[in-house]
Amino acid sequence: MRDEPPAAPASWADGLRFGFGTLSVLRVRVERWDRPAAGRAMVSAPVVGLVLGAIAAGAGALFGWRAGAPLGAVAAVAALAALTRGLHLDGLADVADGLGSGKPAEDALRIMKQSDIGPFGVLTLVLVLLAQVAALTGQFDVSPARGALAVLTAAAAARCALGWGCLRSVPAARPGGLGAMVAGTVTPAAATASTAGTALLLAALGAADGWSALRLPLAVGVGVGCSWLLLRRCVRRFDGITGDVLGAMAETAATGSLVTLALLG
Predict the structure, then answer these.
(1) Which of 37, 44, 78, 113 is 20 to 30 A off residue 181, Cα-Cα?
(2) What is the pLDDT of residues 50-90, one digit of tens each?
(3) DSSP summary character for residue 84
(4) Cα separation, 113 vs 53, whole angstroms
């Protein structure tokens, strides 16, 4: 049997449609469902993050202006969860259960695939959501605009992490599913360029609001670095990535960026 010819290169439009179709509730027509399109999607995922972040930031700013900083923070976090159908939060809980089980990789992956959430997943979700709301409350307390920029930064950092989770050196933990589709589709140069471009855009937005030009890019870098540590742990533990691991990386990056902004003041 002859080998199948390689798939044709995907356009950036194909990647964006793939990205919005898989990473958000926004309805788009996905015309290509293959690895070339998946690779483009993971590199351009920060664009999805900026769009979803802008929507959530608007909701948070409105509630923060009218009802106070705590409700602004809750509204922003809830909007991001709704815009992704809770996909990343579900992945975070599943990975926490898998890592916390202490079982061999095959058994841990089976635990992660189950529909229920165990005690490790519940505890992790509670702590992460509390951290996100608490960090955003401090930013919305300064001003609605400052809180909105923090939301935008967290959403973008979360999607920057996806490209790093799909580097060509990182295998899929199991065949099938979104994880196997996107695993190994991104080059280090593409992940670096995507993250750097996002950081530069946020730096410009932050400077326009009176923030230090380095503060928002630093938050992105720390957030992505935290997600990279989780990735290394998951690859050692599960022998690769799954869609749940990518979701957990996204939430880790978002939380790490928000905590960084809170510490920087």
Answers:
(1) 78
(2) 999 999 999 999 999 999 999 999 999 999 999 999 999 99
(3) T
(4) 28
